[in-house]
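Task card 7
Instruction: Convert sequence to structure tokens.
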Amino acid sequence: MRNLYLVIRKEFLTRVGKRSFWLLSLLGPVILSLMLIIPLGINNLNSEKLRVLVNSAHKDAQNVFETDNSVVYEIINLQPNEASFVYKNQDYDALVDFNKKESWQQASNEFTFQIAKSLSTEASCSLEKNITSFIAFKILQQSNQNSIHIKPIFEGTKKSNPYQEAIQTAALFSAILIYFFIFMYSVQVMRSVIEEKAGRVIELIVISVNPFVFMAGKIIGLGLVAFTQFLIWIFMSSLGSLLISQRFQIARFRNENLMKTLSESSQIKQTLEMNHLIESIYAIPFFDLLMGFVFFFIFGYLLYAAIFAAVGSLVSHENDTQSLIFPVTFPLLGAFVMVPSILKDSNGFWAQILSIIPFTSPVIMPLRIGLGVAWGDLLISCLSLVATFLLMTWLASKTFRTGILMYGKKVSFGEIIKNVRHF
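Output:
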């Protein structure tokens, strides 16, 4: 146990003492945020805006339905048949007619909605948010309620949760983070083994340290580095959220305080948008995502780190790893490529299959946890990942014992299998 502790301590202190560790710890959240924001910005620049005609006699419609990145709103006040005629003859993509609604105290979905083309996800979000905000504002304005729950506009469709976009973004961020951590730190395990093997240091180490203990120490030590970095990110995010909440008085935009805030503000649309943003954040299942992240990162990292350690033990130079790395990382990369499809249907066939396969589940299952997953699927995924981790650690340890003393020879998968069977 002392030897294991010494290897873990060496790996941990060596990595944490590097300047690159602290730079990544401080800049990592910014880099990952840009990875999410930049593609969305490019998509907004390249996407065609939807032209929507809004027919309403209420003066506040102009304040709520403002043109954004995905939808151009034009407000009119006509009879329903006249509005329908304008919509059909002037090249509009959709019509939202509120002039058929007799009482704002009734159910929220009493309006006419016509559309001439399929909605993009962003356009759908914009329409739903603005229609919901407009209805909510009118009900609150004409009642004594402080808050009200509006049913989803596109009820019965896949996008039935008004906060689904925020939940999907959080789940996507979790999947990207796991992929990033597993790949980066597993590669570091491999490089660490190669460096010590290339310097012939490993020949001296294995005299006093069992090869399995040496491999386990490197994996655990670098895993603790990754976990430390994650805790730093959590602390920074929590501190930032607290400061922002206090600075901008976020609580006044919650549903229970919305009516009071609206009565004190002249910026109706901005207030309703802030309310939607804050409620979207509170709707994210942070605890479920955190627990899923911790479990699948730990066992996903241990699984891939053991394999990468075995790969590092088989080569003398990092250039020799190219033919071995791609087959090892292909499942992880394939899972990352499938993320957009999983976001569309988190309980579909491929989502269920990829969340059971242990080489892809560390990326796919945390994504499904954020979007909602059956307990049976979650249990099967966890058990298969743990079982495969134990099996691959056993196989990797056998390969590691042989590989660390092999020099000057390119290794094929056939020879790896032969060595495993021999031991």
